[in-house]
Amino acid sequence: MAGGGAAPGPAPRVPLRALLRALNALLRQRRHRAALAAIKGFRNGAVYGAKIRAPHALVMTFLFRSGSLREKLKSIAQATYTHSRNLAYFVFTYKGLMALQSWLQGKKIPFHSFLAACIGGWLVFGENNPVNSQIVMYLLSRILFGLSRLAVEKGYVPQPKQDPFPLVAALVWGTVLWLFEYHRQTLQPSLQASMTYLYDDSNVWHDVSDFLIYNKKPASE
Q: What pLDDT is stored for residue 4 in this prediction?
């Protein structure tokens, strides 16, 4: 082109290896450790939530849920997404609030963990839906066991002379079957479905097909 310079060429491409080196250098910097830990916590929450929810949703949906294959797959995907997203959000929120409190006070104290988790639980798991309900009940049972052991360790409760687990097992099963038989509306829906399959459906059969092969006769029959 007359009177003009050469046309600018394409922008130089950054080699992938150089990009990885720069990223690894960033990850090794301690001043960014709290923020990076929150980001990795988000990643781990998303992966872990998907890994434990997808198989559970798959089994429960195909065992107890009616509807077309498309509806079942959509339900599995929705439950998996909700669990994965919520766990990722919670871990990110918790670790972010822990870092913020430690920065504000100059040190980490036990109350920071409780407060950060309370806020995260309210914001992320506060909606009463089936996935959140299952997660909270899962944690509640483990909290009760953990607090019982802590009470013994701290000396608030004397060390049992015998293993208390058989008594706990008896009371748990006695209570849940009493609730199922007489107040089943108080139980969580997936537990109701499981117990209906075990204790109600086993009372009904017509011939060998729905006595041994199927739980219920196929609709075509």
A: 55
Between 64 and 203, the more confident residue is 203
> What is the rounded CA–CA span in Å between residue 75 and residue 71?
6
Residue type at 195?
M
Rounded CA gap, 98 and 196, in Å? 43
- Which pair of structure tokens corresponds to residue 131? 């996935």
Q: In angstroms, rounded to a whole number, what is the distance separating the alpha carbons of residues 21 and 24?
A: 5
| CA pair distance 188, 85, nearest whole angstrom | 22
Tokens encoding 178: 């009493």
Burial of 197 (0-12, 13-18, 19+ CB in 10 A): middle
SS3 174: helix
Helices 69-105 and 33-64 pack at an angle, to 10 degrees, of 150
Convert the pLDDT of each residue in 82-135 to its tens digit: 999 999 999 999 999 999 999 999 899 999 999 999 999 999 999 999 899 999
Q: Is the dihedral of CA 84, 88, 89, 94 positive or negative?
A: positive
**Position of tokens 């802590």?**
150
